[in-house]
Amino acid sequence: KLQMPLEKVRKVMKIAKEPISLETPIGDEEDSQLGDFIEDKNAILPLDSAIQSNLKETTTRVLASLTAREERVLRMRFGIGMNTDHTLEEVGQQFSVTRERIRQIEAKALRKLKHPSRSRKLRSFLDE
Fold it and tell me: Which among 23, 48, 26, 63 is positioned nearest to 127, based on CA atoms?
């Protein structure tokens, strides 16, 4: 047996069947509402927001250590800070060079980013 008065069981059962407003006051002072206790699955956690902000800032600093041309090529190729990424051909048209030249610039910039002096700044953001 539940060791609970029958009347209390009936009251709980009645509450369980009736719809309840999310604005229903909760607590002794009624300073909270039921909706305050429902988790928002789409909310970004403060820690995740801080990590995202730090990653963006670090990425900007690391890319700024490249030449202006290399930085712009990588930003365009990978869509960093843009709505979309671009093909070698599209980037080449922006710089008035061939796609092969853009590929070479991209490869050189990526080699620079792989150097420990730059890569260690970003390594902490990887899930290992």
Answer: 48
Amino acid residing at 45? L
Regarding whether 54 and 73 lie in a shared domain, the answer is: yes
Contacts for 3 with CB less than 8 Å, ≥ 6 apart = none
Q: Model-level pTM? A: 0.63
Name the nearest CA neighbour of 64 among 51, 78, 74.
74
pLDDT profile of the chain (128 residues), mean per 10: 79 76 80 81 86 91 96 96 95 97 97 91 77
Q: Which residue range forms the structural domain that includes residue 55?
A: 46-123
d(CA 93, CA 127): 36
